[in-house]
C-alpha cells in the first residue's frame, strides 16, 4: 500500500482525494500498488466530509510518519508551501504540486533537493491545469531545437477577452461577469495583471531551456488597459486579442514575456476561447505542436496531479524528471525585440503618424488615431513614439502583433 498525504482540502485537494477514490482500481493496475490517502492537512475540520477522519492540523504528524511516501501540496502561495516542500523532500518523501507560484520561485531548489534525496518533485498541474503538457514538453525539448514555447496560460483573462470579442463588452463588465461565474477572484490582480501567466511561462521556459528566469525579469503586462475599441479594431482586420506568455530562445539568451497580442484569426491560438488554455511548442523538426484543454478546475487539475502521483508510484526516479537551474543572467530585455505594434493616440492626426512612421497601417482616425507600425526594433519604435509625444500625442493603447 502506497500512502500519501494531501496538504490543503480546498477545490484542488478535495478533487485529488475524490479522483483517487473513484479510480482506485485503475490506479492500482497501472501503478502496481494500491494508493491510500492517509492524511489531509487543513486548518479547518470537515465533519460532514467522507474524508473528515483523515484531517489533521499539525504538519509534523505527516512529516514524522514513515508510512507516508508522497505529499500532494495543494495549498497555493509561497509560504508555508516552500517550508513544507523542503521538509517533505528532506524527509525522503516525493512531492507533487499544482502550485505555480512556489514552482516559479523555488522549483530549481526543490529539484536539486529531490535529486540529493533520491525522491521526486513533479508539477504537471502547475501549468495548463488538466492539459498534460509538461511531460511531453520535457521529452520534445530533448530531440528538437526549440525556438519558442508560448501560449494562453490564464483562463480568467481569456474568458474576459473572449467576452469582449464575442459580445463587444468592455473590460469592467467582462471582469464582473467572470467574478459572478467564479472564474475571477474578488481581487483579480494576479490574473488580470499577468502575474499568474508570468509564473507559468517561467516554468514552461525553464523546462524547455533548462534556465529558470526569476519572474521579475519577465516583461509582464496584463489586460486592464485593453479597451472595447481595441478589440473591435483588431476584429475589423480579422484578428483577436489574447494574453500570451512567450519564451523565446534568441541571441544567446532567453526572452520571456507576458502581454496582450493581436493574433490573426487563422492562428490556432486565436480560436482558443473562454477559460480554455493552449500551449504551442515551436522548433525543428517538430514545427508547431499545440496542446489544448481546460486550464483550471477541480477535475482537470486533480487529473494532472494524480497523473504525477501514479508516475512516481510506478517509476520513482525512473519517471521523467524536470531539470533546470535559476539563470537570471540569461534574461533578454524587450529592446531588441523586432515586430509590429498597434498604437492608439489622442492629440495627433493620421497625417502626423504618416510623417513620422514609414508606411503605417492606419486603422481609424476618429478622435483618436489608431495604426499598426511597420516592423522594427521596439527601441526604435519607442524613438518614433517620442516624436508623437512631442507633438502632444497621448498614448491610449499599445498592443504587439504576433
Ligand atoms: N487563475 C488561474 C487561471 C487558475 O485563471 O488560469 C489556474 O491556474
Which short descriptors sum up this protein?
single chain; 402 residues; alpha/beta; ten-stranded mixed β-sheet; six-stranded parallel β-sheet; 27% strand; binds L-homoserine
Description:
- With 402 residues, the chain is of the alpha/beta class.
- Helix content is 38%, strand content 27%.
- The chain has helices at residues 11-22, 24-31, 59-63, 81-90, 100-117, 134-143, 155-167, 171-180, 189-192, 195-209, 228-236, 298-315, 350-356, 378-390, and strands spanning 2-7, 35-41, 55-56, 68-73, 94-97, 121-122, 145-152, 211-212, 219-220, 239-250, 253-264, 276-284, 287-294, 325-326, 338-339, 341-346, 361-365, 368-372, 376-377, 394-401.
- The strands form four sheets. Strands 7, 9, 10, 11, 12, 13, 16, 17, 18 and 20 form a ten-stranded mixed sheet that branches. A six-stranded parallel sheet has the order 3-2-1-4-5-6, sandwiched between helices.
- β5 (94-97), α5 and β6 form a beta-alpha-beta unit.
- α1 packs across α12 (298-315), α4 packs parallel to α5 and α5 runs parallel beside α10.
- The longest helix is centred in the N-terminal third of the chain and has 18 residues, at 100-117.
- The radius of gyration is 23 Å and the shape is elongated.
- The chain starts with a strand and ends with a strand.
- The mean pLDDT is 96.
- The structure holds L-homoserine (HSE).
- L-homoserine (HSE) binds next to α7.
